[in-house]
Amino acid sequence: MKTMDESDVGISCYISNLPGFRGILKQRYSDFIVNEVDLDENVVHLTSLEAPKEVCSEAKEVNVSDQLNTSYVTEIESFRSLAGNSDADKLKALIDKHNSGVDVSDEPIVLSPSSDKSHRTAIHNFFKERLKFLVTDTIDGVEDQSKCVRVRLNKGGNNGRGKYSRKRKDRDDKRYDSRGSDSWPEHLGKFLRFNLFKENKDTQEALNVIAKMLGVQPRSFGFAGTKDKRAVTTQRVTVFKQQASKLAALNRRLIGIKVGDFCHVKEGLLLGQLYGNRFTITLRGVSAESEDIIKASAVALGEHGFMNYFGLQRFGSSSVPTHLIGAALLRGEWKAAVSLILDPREGDKNAISTVREYYKESGDIDGTLRQLPRYLVAEKAILQCLKKHPGNYLQALKAIPRTLRMMYVHSYQSYLWNHAASMRVQKHGFDQVVLGDLVYSKEQHKEKETFVAECETVNDNNMDDYSNLDETSETDLPEEKNIPVKALNEEDLKSGTYTIDDVLLPLPGSRVIYPSNDIGEVYRDLAQKDGISLTETAHKIKEFSITNMTGAYRRVFQKPKDFEWELLSYTDGTIPLAETDFDVIAKSVKKSKVREEDSANGSEELRADSSAISVGDDMLPGKGCEEKSNSEAGMQTEKSQSGGNAESQMALKLSFTLPASCYATMAVRELLKTSTSVAFHKSLND
């Protein structure tokens, strides 16, 4: 099977008739900058790494380091009378070892089995009241019906009574989560909100790193949407019951990640709680028959917009598009769907291809699992289930994380939408509305537009890396009831109330209507060719049925908001042409350092709040206070002349805001009139 082209998923039309031109997308990570836009349409920026002064009950919280040299003789003797000599001796040994400086954080002690719940409760209460630097939970004993109290060092700095810290039978040696602090001040919101800045990392990967450093579960974090991996991005994140000072201290250790702009709020963020994203995109190596073509194309994009297609990222990056798997699920072909996920495919790296071939030829599940990379989440889930339930392909598919397995069906809906959008333009153009077009009604209802939380994730290779898609599909099809949508009639056309910018097309579902013209038939005909009915289900599994989904609406044409552009010339391809949030902070710290050196007669010590930026290897790759500014590096506007002997090249820098459902790569496609695939743009660098 050949690698997927844009035309394979219905991406074929442009709005502008202007010729395209050459340009390289994402030559550097800083060529693709994304800043989240919140529901109030404020652009999210990282502006400070400093933790604000917090009136937290730090005195109430237990600082383990303050108790290193305390013997607790009285407490141990009291515990001896409660639990007996054997358990008291175990406790004394743990405390003595801890006081000697040995790291005992991963060396819990297990007390003697007890079937008396009141006795176990008394032990738990003893540690909560007398030895707060230790935490306890209950685990199964060796004998039936018996329970044991487990004791270990409190890593989280609280009393360990969180959701993930008590009575977790199957915790083994997992970290305690600090979500349940009883000493949290009443005047502070329970969620710490901060801005996450990252480079070349997807959102979940960055949060996993932070979670590990804090000793909390990744699920403690909330965010509105995932952001691109191959980019520099800033977004809002919330975490439950954490102090800003703890997160700010991580900046010294984080590589490619920074956190800042802390404040406490009452509610955590949920997926979909954003307006959209602000993009700053730099196309390098730009060339055309004339500079006027580039300028005219940029102006046209700002005035007329682009076809609002679902981008290639929606369909995966391998030769087996996700919509084909979705179609198999909708038909109820469970074994075929499993084969599409597991079988060898073009575009895989050699190591992955070898593993897939091995399983297809041998059927050895254990051997395949040992070789399979962790990021192939769907494949691992399927094989682990088939090992327990051989031949049960439906159950194996349900073992895939829900948001990931639903992505397949949503991908097929997007596939139908793209084809319908192309047919709408091919048959009726993009100049005016026609009879039967769908629009949000302006007569009886206030227009209500539902934006869909998407992520633009372009992988570095042609493998399907699903790790950063696991949180996106949940918000793809919002369950909106009574959306005011209507098909245009003759009176609407005569009134001139509606324009081409109002035209919508549905994502198939049980609560949407279809255009009452020939475009409505496009959905049914294309689905029928794939053996799928949009009105009847082929099986009883609701989650894999379009008739069980509500559906949604999406604008066919999208104009970028607050659109800006400029032509630049440069001679050094390694120099950034756009400032990131971190660059702005670093520049500010550098100025502050100069002022402090002047006032301190040559002192080179930085302020405490800026040390996280400038300490050696803690800086982001390729960033730092000593990096030359763009102007110093030779970046010039189109009116300037480049100096030196190096050959001057042209770049086009674009800045614009899009709703969360829109793909910036489709805006770039409208300019270049070329494929937006990673492979194509990599070839331009060769």
The overall average pLDDT, rounded, is: 80
The gyration radius over C-alpha positions equals 29 Å
Query: CA-to-CA gap between the ends?
Result: 25 Å
Q: Give the DSSP E fraction (strand runs of 2 or more residues).
A: 15-25%
Largest sheet: 10 strands, mixed
InterPro entries: PsdUridine_synth_cat_dom_sf, PsdUridine_synth_TruD, PsdUridine_synth_TruD_CS, PsdUridine_synth_TruD_insert, TruD_catalytic
Biased composition (Basic and acidic residues): 170-181, 595-608
Protein name: TRUD domain-containing protein
Region (Disordered): 153-181, 595-646
Describe this structure as you would to a colleague:
Residues 153-181, 595-646 are annotated as: Disordered. This is TRUD domain-containing protein. By secondary structure, this protein is an alpha+beta fold. It has 19 helices and 19 strands. It is globular. The two termini are 25 Å apart.
Can you tag this structure with a few keywords?
686 residues, alpha+beta, ten-stranded mixed sheet, 19 helices, 31% helix
What is the strand and helix layout of this fold?
Blueprint: E1 22-24, E2 32-37, H1 73-83, H2 85-99, E3 109-110, H3 117-130, E4 134-140, E5 147-153, E6 191-199, H4 203-214, E7 221-223, E8 232-240, H5 244-249, E9 257-265, E10 276-287, H6 291-304, E11 306-307, H7 322-331, H8 334-342, H9 350-362, H10 365-371, H11 377-388, H12 393-398, H13 402-428, E12 438-440, E13 485-487, H14 490-495, E14 504-507, H15 518-529, E15 552-555, E16 557-558, E17 561-570, H16 581-599, H17 611-614, E18 636-637, E19 649-659, H18 664-672, H19 678-685
Parallel strand pairs: 2-8
Antiparallel strand pairs: 1-10, 2-10, 3-5, 4-5, 6-8, 6-9, 7-8, 10-19, 11-16, 12-13, 14-15, 17-18, 17-19
